[in-house]
Amino acid sequence: MSRLEDGTAVIGGRSMIVRRSGLPEGPAVVLLHALGLDRHAFDPLRHALGESLDIISYDHRGHGSRASEESFTLQMLVDDARDMIRWVNRPVHLLGHALGGVVAAFAAGSMRNAVRSLALVATPPQSMPAFAERAHQIDEGGLAVPVEQSLKRWFSGLEGLPTYRDAFAYGRKAISAVSANGYANGWRSLAGFGRLELDDAGLPPTLCIAVADDTSVPASSFDSFLRGGAKRREGLQLEVLPRGGHMLPLTEPERLARYLNEHWKVPQA
């Protein structure tokens, strides 16, 4: 990859580190990472997507370079995403992974003219009781046990993948940089959002990607939304990949990139 750099910018009145790669004049893609990770989480996907896009990521509050900003709510994360889209200053393809997908969906719903398309990767379509339970577990007992439980959910059963070793090492490093309060607030953010309105006709073309072996957000979570009885709006699509677990951008970046390039209508060489 010829261009991959971190730069500092004032976004929404805050100094933030922005990680950027690809073609500055290319279609803009903003990537929102999962709970426990940081702006580096998409580096394998950047390589798989190639050079024709302007690919942008940043750290959520409580993560990476912003680990000290450990007191936050979901609305604050959504406001950050909206500020980032304004900073890019042209319509973007918006992708969110897990918590980042929830943030992306709410940001897209409130900035419809600024978001060309929406992609949700391993994103829960609704809050689950387990999210609040995990926040309570951290409040009561700290991070040691929840971190190991998260890593198990993220990577167990994927040891045979060629990407496993690097993905696991990065995942452990990233989650270890998050404070107990920051991680608990991330779970509280997920516990309180309710349900994503994926049938909202005002949303841009939306691709939901689930993974058959994801134990954090099972593909069956989408049954009532996109399979069977739910009303489906034009431009709403579900793809279920066979393998890769919850950390798909780290474990199966090439496969994920193929679906994204088709969704974004990126010309292939």
Give the structure's gist in a few sentences.
The chain has 269 residues and is α/β, with parallel strands linked by helices.
Give structural notes.
The protein is of the alpha/beta class and 269 residues long. It has one domain (4-264): 3-Layer(aba) Sandwich (Rossmann fold), CATH 3.40.50.1820. 39% of the residues lie in helices and 19% in strands. The chain has an 8-stranded mixed β-sheet. α3 links the parallel β5 and β6. The model has no long low-confidence stretch (mean pLDDT 94).
Q: Within the largest sheet, what's the order of strands?
A: 1-2-4-3-5-6-7-8
Within CATH, the superfamily carries the name: Alpha/Beta hydrolase fold, catalytic domain
Shape: globular
Beta strand % = 15-25%
The helix/strand class is alpha/beta
SSE succession: EEEHEHEHEHHHHEHEHH
Low-confidence stretches are: none
CATH class category label: Alpha Beta
Q: What is the number of domains?
A: 1
Helix content: 25-40%
Main beta sheet strand tally, sense and closure? 8 strands, mixed
Helical run tally? 10
Kindly report how far apart the N and C termini lie: 16 Å
**Radius of gyration from CA coordinates:** 17 Å
The count of DSSP E runs of length 2 or more, i.e. the number of strands, is: 8
Topology overview:
Layout: E1 4-11, E2 14-22, E3 28-32, H1 43-49, E4 54-58, H2 74-88, E5 92-97, H3 99-110, E6 115-121, H4 129-141, H5 144-155, H6 164-176, H7 180-191, E7 206-211, H8 223-226, E8 236-241, H9 248-251, H10 253-264
Parallel strand pairs: 3-4, 3-5, 5-6, 6-7, 7-8
Antiparallel strand pairs: 1-2, 2-4
Helix pairs in contact: 1-10, 2-3, 4-7
